[in-house]
Amino acid sequence: MAIALVxxxxxxxxxxxxxxxxxxxTTGASLLIVVASNFSSDLxxxxxxxGNTYTSLTRVASVGNTARxxxxxxxxxxxxxxxxxxxxxxxxxxxxxxxxxxSGVATTxxxxxxxxxxxxxxxxxxxxxxxxxxNELILAGVxxxxxxxxxxxxxxxxxxxxxxxxxxxxNSTSGSALAYFVQGTAAAINPTWTSxxxxxxxxxxxxxxxxxxxxxxxxxxxxxxxxxxxxxxxGRIAA
Length: 239
Fold this sequence. Notes:
The chain is mainly β. It has strands at about 5-10, 20, 30-40, 45-50, 55, 60, 65-75, 85, 90-105, 110-120, 125, 135-145, 155, 160-165, 175-180, 190-195, 200-210, 220, 225, 230-235, 235.
């Protein structure tokens, strides 16, 4: 089964309390992703209404913003699924995030490679990765800070944006965005995130996840006969 996006949702920024997404139906997903950013300190962690545990990838940080990807392989999924980002202390404000659920991803040790870069300007690359296998899921995230002006993000390299969200504080205006691409033949990829505001603090990152192993084929049919795992030609069993 090929990797596919099942559903996605934003986790809006709320100051002074946990931030929780709307409920979505994640049935059929084998991988959950949360990308989030925060103005200033990296003092938050994702939870969800299904009790899943998330693994963090490497943080990318610079002045005014910090961001990263979390993932959960082989998760508990279903309807009414919500995602929450919770502040650890008063320094953790302006949290915003994007969550997404994917099917067709390996349920055991799916994470492959990652990279990330911090940039100050109108655009920034994620850093290059080369997946180990064909047909992997490529995820690109970005945390950004514009110092008071809301920004709209875009990305190249055939990536499709699932969501982007900006906090509501005019003094910080941090935000996050998530994009994905299901690659065919494994090859190096280094997408560029671009902001409508220049300059912008851009903490861009990328990660790849392996596809589930293909299931075995069905019976082979030759000359009107069906043999499971055996080829039949001309009425006799072929070697």
